[in-house]
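Notes to self, Ribokinase:
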Amino acid sequence: MSRIVVLGVFAADAIYRGSRLPAMGETVLGSAFALGPGGKGSNQAVAAGKLGADVSLITRLGKDAFAKIAYDTWADAGVTPVVVEDPEAYTGSAFIFVDDRSGENAIIICPGAAGDLGPEDILRAEELVRGADVFLAQLEQPLAAALAGVRIAADSGVTTILNPAPAQRLPANLLRDLTYITPNESEAEALTGVAVHDLATARQAGDALLALGVSAAVITLGAEGALLHSAERSEHVPGVSAGPVVDTTGAGDAFNGAFAVALSEGAEPVEAARFACAAAGLSVTRKGAATSSPRRTEVDALLAG
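result:
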């Protein structure tokens, strides 16, 4: 079984659906509400676990009702928690608005206890990181934790993936330690200054990311799939449709978790990206974030069809 270690945040997602976001001072009647598991790190760990990998998640939680949602979610997906519980902090939470018409979303996240994740959390799990096939991180927790995790993993020959969300300026030493960086279009623009709106501009952004020091970029393009871009190749991997789009909230996390799984199993990068596109394609046909991630049999069936 492939071994994946994820560093990241759990957040209880408060999901509101409606026709539009309210203006300041305005109240808008919504159409639906749900409370469920979220946070990019947790979502990506859950996505990988549901696809059959041996996954450990390094994070921090409060001691509250939202923490129970986290543990229940991880148990269902087969994710092993590597958790520090902080009774003085709260478990992370996120406000998610989903547009009824388009399925697009807007998000505010408060990491809570996971906002205190640091290098000491990585050092506590150092042997776990060194023994992984893939180490996966995002940027909802402090950058110092991601720096420490990626450095230890890279030093041990572990494949490293950074999903740079939310986007921020990244130090050169972190970029050099990455095997893959996986921004979406807006994150690629924030990192490079190149507005991504088609394959040609995605390749320009990919070149800019390579110039910053990364080995390879996988720029996700929504329904259009993804661009795998390195010094040796630049290949478009088309999106994989699994039905009408209902909610895009968890698509990027499903992609990253699936990409990590395929790489950990020895898949060639383009094959791994196609597997990830199929997982994302299934994810958008369902509501929710972690709850929308597909099982392995579903992804295999979609690709086989």
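- The chain has one domain: 3-9+40-58+117-304.
- The mean pLDDT is 95.
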